[in-house]
Amino acid sequence: MGWDRFASGYDRRRGFGRAVCLFLAAFALAATGCGKSGQGAKTDPEKGSDAEILNAALAQELILFDAYTQGLPRLKGPFVAVGREFRAHEQEYANAITKAIRGLGGETEAEGDELDFSQVAGQADFLALAYELENAALATYLDAAPRLFTDAPRMLAASLAAGHAQHLVVLRQALGAGLAESVPEAFESGEEPLQRR
Q1: Could you tell me which residues come within 8 angstroms of residue 144 by beta carbon, excluding any fewer than 6 positions away?
Q2: What domains appear along the chain, each with residue ranges and CATH number?
Q3: By CB distance 3.0 to 4.6 Å, which of 110, 124, 181, 195 could disulfide with 58?
Q4: For residue 184, which of 168, 197, 162 has the smallest C-alpha distance?
Q5: Distance between alpha carbon 113 and the CA centroid of its chain, in Å?
Q6: Is the dihedral of CA 26, 89, 67, 157 positive or negative?
Q7: CB count in 10 Å sphere of residue 49
Q8: How far apart are CA 167 and CA 37, in angstroms?
Q9: How confident is the model at residue 8 (pLDDT cuts 50, 70, 90)?
Q10: How far is Cα 138 from Cα 142, in angstroms, rounded to an integer?
């Protein structure tokens, strides 16, 4: 499986499936936000907790979006298309989380931390940074899923964890891992150290 496949925009069915999952999760969140007045995140402790967890996740997605935005000029060849695709994913993720927070009756308060790119000289350095950030995002969703009270945010967290796990496989290959090495464990944990080749 070469990088040309990734550069051509991935398999269309995966993109459609991801869009359907995110739409269903956002729709379910909107439905859970409706109902009796006074039952939103401000007065319902469970929804308030979920909105807080999702705001922390949103901050992480904003950091990743910024990372891919700043990293694009450092990418070359087929990796440019991959970087653009991942940046677009981050925008979709941020939008879905924002809708989820609003569906809970909460407010988006997240702000992404500013990244230090002073040590990111070229493509390999950026890919290593992206790997660390994607690993952290995956760990966040694996930790968040069992702590979320409402179904729709749990579904969204699972979907986002899967997306970040896919990113990690591609990033490992970009950093020189073979096909077997790019999926080192049966279950992604968000703690797999970077193995540079």
Answers
A1: 53, 56, 57, 157
A2: 45-112+122-197 (1.20.1260.10)
A3: 110
A4: 168
A5: 16
A6: positive
A7: 18
A8: 40
A9: very low
A10: 6
CA-CA distance, 84 to 56, in Å (whole number)? 24
The CA distance from 169 to 3, in Å, is: 12
Please state, in angstroms and as integers, the Cα–Cα distance from residue 98 to each residue in 64, 161, 179, 185, following that order.
Answer: 15, 16, 35, 31
> 30-38, long-range: CB within 8 Å, 24+ apart, which pairs?
30/99, 30/102, 30/103, 31/103, 31/152, 32/103, 32/104, 32/150, 32/151, 32/152, 33/102, 33/103, 33/104, 33/105
- Dihedral (Cα; 116, 118, 120, 121), 10-degree rounding: 170
Convert the pLDDT of each residue in 32-80 to its tens digit.
444 444 568 888 999 999 999 999 999 999 999 999 999 999 999 999 9
Residues recorded for the chain: 197
9: left (phi over 0), alpha (psi -120 to 50) or beta: left
pLDDT in tens, 135-176: 999 999 999 999 999 999 999 999 999 999 999 999 999 999
CB atoms within 10 A of CB 121: 10
**Residue 142 CB coordination number (10 Å):** 19
Per the listing, tokens 């040590």 go with 119
* Other C-beta atoms lying within 10 Å of the C-beta of residue 58: 23
The residue-averaged pLDDT of 8-14 equals: 44
